[in-house]
Give the backbone structure.
Amino acid sequence: MSRLQCPRCTRPTERCLCALIPCLPSRTRVLILQHPSEVRHALNTARLAALGLSNAQLLVGEVFEALPALLQQPGYRACLLFPGEQVQPLMPYDKSCSELPLLLVVPDGTWRKARKLLHVNPQLANLPRVALPEGLSSRYRLRKAPMPGALSTLEAIVAALNTIEAPTCFDALLKPFEALIEGQIEAMGAQTYQRNHAQSDTAL
């Protein structure tokens, strides 16, 4: 028999994260495009980001027919948080001028699935690309990062907003993420975690 799930955070009811999820306003609008393969992932961090930000939207799919209209929302300038040629570093808003806030588009999936989203939605490939600051490391202690600086979707969004909207801090978004990781470590047992993950944890 399957366990009851919280309809909001989709975690088992006895491990519901809703009490830890904030509701943070942001000048930046965040549009998360989630590949369907991520929906049932144990660490669905994109959902946590969408729940914790009042100015965020999460769409699930491969081809997004509404994307052209979403990218042209009045009052925003769209950019894609994804590596590539001519990528620009994220910079804090210039408070001395009236520049439009960003519509930050964030693909959510493995690197292969995220690239597929760009391929089947050509509007994404045409967006200016932005990158996170260098030297960041993930708090995801249950999985070795595929490359230096690789973060979960939630961590990437937090790092981006902390950069763009400094000195405003969005670290409160990470509280349910950290609780989720602690819960999984507890479920697997200390010995199993130490044997399989502790070495990579120290490396971070």
User: Anything to note?
Assistant: The chain has one domain: 24-189. The chain is about 35% helix and 15% strand. Confidence is low (pLDDT under 50) at residues 197-204.
